[in-house]
Amino acid sequence: MAPVTRPEESPEVVDSKARIQRSERSSRWFALVVWLMLASGAGGCYWYYSKVYVPGKRAQAHLEETQDQARQLRSAIGKLGEWSTQESFDSVRGELLKFDARNDAEPVVRRQLWDQFSETYEPRARRMREFEAFLAELNSFSLDTDEAGLIAMQERMRLASGRFEKPLMQQLEAAWEPRRDAIAEKLGLYGEGGTGAIEVRSIPSGARLLLNGRELGVTPLQVAGIRAGNLKLGLRHPKYHDYDYPIQVKEYGILLLNDLEMKPRQGGVEITVVGATTTDRIEVELICTPDNGETFDYVKSFEGVYVSVPQLIIGSYDVSIYVNGRQRQGTKLEVLEGNVSKWTARL
Questions:
Q1: Can you tell me whether residue 323 is helix, strand or coil?
Q2: Side-chain half-sphere exposure of 275, counting CA atoms within 13 A
Q3: Using one digit for the tens of pLDDT, what is the confidence trace for 124-170?
Q4: What is the pTM of this model?
Q5: Is 284 exposed, middle or buried (0-12, 13-18, 19+ CB in 10 A)?
Q6: CA-to-CA distance for 242 and 234, rounded, in angstroms?
Q7: Coil, helix or strand for 340?
Q8: What whole-number distance in Å separates Cα of residue 290 and Cα of residue 299?
Q9: Residue in 268, 272, 263 with CA at minimum distance from that of residue 334
C-alpha cells in the first residue's frame, strides 16, 4: 500500500502555528508568575498578620492593661492611711509584686508606686515599732515595782488606747493586766478599800455626771479614787432625757466609757413665708446656739415657702429668712418638748 503523504503546508500556515504556540507558552508562564505572586502575597499577608499585627495588638492590649493596673494601684495606695489595717497594706503590697512581674511595666512607674506605698506605710510602720517596743516593755515590767511605778504604767496604758487600734490594745492588755494584778496584790492594793478610775465622754458633751446620785462634774471627765464595785452612772442634760447606766469599777483599773449617746428631747417647727414671687429663691435657716456648757452649734437650712421640721432638739432657735441670698426677716422661736412652734413670715 502506498504511503499517505500530507500535503505540504504553506509558509504562512507554519508561521501562524508557531505564533500560536509561542502565545500559549507565554500565557502559561504569565499565569504561573501571577499565581506565584498571589501565593507570595497571601503568604506575606499571613506572615504580617500572625507575626506583626496580632502580636502588636496583644502587646498594645497588655500595655493598656498594665497602665490601667498602675492607675488602680495609685488609687488603692491613695486610700491607705496610718490607721488602715495590716491586711489592707499586705493586699496592696501583693498587687505591687504582681505588677513588678509584668514585662511592660515601666521602671519609673514601678519606682513611683513603691515610693508612694513606702511613704504611706511609714507612719504605720513607725507606730508598729512603738507598739512592739511597748509590748516588750510590758512583758518585761518588773513585778517588784512600787505603787508609783504601777500608777505611771497604768497611765501610759490609758494614753495608748488613743494611739493603737483595738486588736493591738487587746495584745497590750493581755500582757499588762496579769502583771498589773500581780503587782497590785503584792502591794496590798486589792481588797476592801481598793479604788479605780473612770473616764466618761458623752454625746453631747457638757452633761452632768452622777455616780450613785452624787454629781462629780460635767463631761468629758476623768475621775480617780472611786471605790471599786458595782455602781450606777447617770448623765443629766436639760435638752436630753436622763441617761442611767450600770458600771463595774475594778480595783486599780480605769474604766473607759466613750461616746455615751443621750436621747434628745424634741419638738417641732412650722414656718410659712408669705409675699414671695414665683421667681424668688427662699431659704430658711435655723440656728441653735450653744448654752449650758454645750460645745456644738445646731444649724439647719431649708428651701421653699413652707418648712416643717417635726424633730428638733428643744431650745431657743434664731430663724432667718433669705430672699435671693439676702436676709429679709428674722425672729426667735422656742422649741418645746412635744410641741410645734409656728411662725408666719410676711415679706
A1: strand
A2: 9
A3: 888 889 999 999 999 999 988 887 787 788 778 878 877 787 888 88
A4: 0.43
A5: buried
A6: 7
A7: strand
A8: 11
A9: 268
